[in-house]
Amino acid sequence: xxxxxxxxxxxxxxxxxxxxxxxxxxxxxxxxxxxxxxxxxxxxxxxxxxxxxxxxxxxxxxxxxxxxxxxxxxxxxxxxxxxxxxxxxxxxxxxxxxxxxxxxxxxxxxxxxxxxxxxxxxxxxxxxxxxxxxxxxxxxxxxxxxxxxxxxxxxxxxxxxxxxxxxxxxxxxxxxxxxxxxxxxxxxxxxxxxxxxxxxxxxxxxxxxxxxxxxxxxxxxxxxxxxxxxxxxxxxxxxxxxxxxxxxxxxxxxxxxxxxxxxxxxxxxxxxxxxxxxxxxxxxxxxxxxxxxxxxxxxxxxxxxxxxxxxxxxxxxxxxxxxxxxxxxxxxxxxxxxxxxxxxxxxxxxxxxxxxxxxxxxxxxxxxxxxxxx
Length: 374
Ligand SMILES: *Cc1c(COP(=O)(O)O)cnc(C)c1O
What we know:
By secondary structure, this protein is α/β, with parallel strands linked by helices. The chain is 39% helix and 14% strand. It has 13 helices and 13 strands. The protein has helices at 10-15, 17-30, 37-50, 61-73, 91-98, 117-123, 143-153, 205-214, 236-246, 249-267, 296-305, 335-341, 355-371, and strands at 54-58, 81-85, 102-106, 128-131, 156-160, 168-169, 180-184, 198-202, 219-221, 224-225, 282-283, 289-292, 344-347. The strands form 4 sheets. The chain has a 7-stranded mixed sheet, sandwiched between helices. Strands 6-11 form a two-stranded antiparallel sheet. The protein has a two-stranded antiparallel sheet with strand order 9-10. It is globular. Bound molecules: pyridoxal-5'-phosphate. Pyridoxal-5'-phosphate binds at residues 60-62, 88-89, 91-92, 134, 160, 162-163, 184, 186, 196, 198.
């Protein structure tokens, strides 16, 4: 029995092999490993893709979010609050804490798993400085309401768009609603490098300049440093690979949307499965296709036994993570987040996934549900 992986990058690499080989050879020939022409070109091309602004390229998506917060708000002393969700990858909160802010968890919409604007408004205190909505699974929450609330309260909006390259809310993508959006190019993301990589996109030129400087040792010139810094740069090789792949991102997102549509049709007849809710105002790019099922852990095990390598994003919400127990920000009750954590199941989705594969996943899920009595 051949396995169906959660993500299979092999097909996209095979499709682009000649272009990728040429890009790497070009970098090696020019010895452009830090900075260089591909680095500058990718920053511009990615910013253009995001809708016209600029991009600061970073070593990874976690640093991108931390540096964006740090440069938007100034380094914090641990008392300023940043409103976000607990249904996300831990990096979101690592970045908030790293920038010197206290995360305040807001419950999610039980249909989409995304930030609930009503809960956001209820959770904002006078200590709030910023909102970090997370475009989880490839879908954006109601950014119109979130941005309007932020504007009314004087809060910054820095979007965690690590899973949402190409997503939109009412036609506007990440970074066009507030101060900035951070992206990850971790290999399995919709746009992925061959290693760690990240970026901040913003229309605020000065903000992008400060993030670039922060990520390059706070340099004013080669050995003169006039602001706090660190080393979080994007490799020239990664930039060259990302340039090649960026040209295919729209087509790959379209494939993901087609796979999602195929899944919806296949799952419609299976009792117990709730397909993901796609908001009519959202362009969902299906980084993950997340269904809800009863008795999720048992169903997951039954799927793995059939070679369908489904996953869970994420099984432990951040306020329940062991590392944060005892921290005051983790002492919150988030009923929708907690209920979802026991029901969500990510089915395999990746560009070039075949109709046979989606059919086998759906069939295996139906069998898993009936066999487990779920
Ligand atoms: C992947 C991811 C990150 C972190 O990106 P890295 O490049 O792995 O540091 C942050 N937030 C979310 C929601 C992610 O999925």
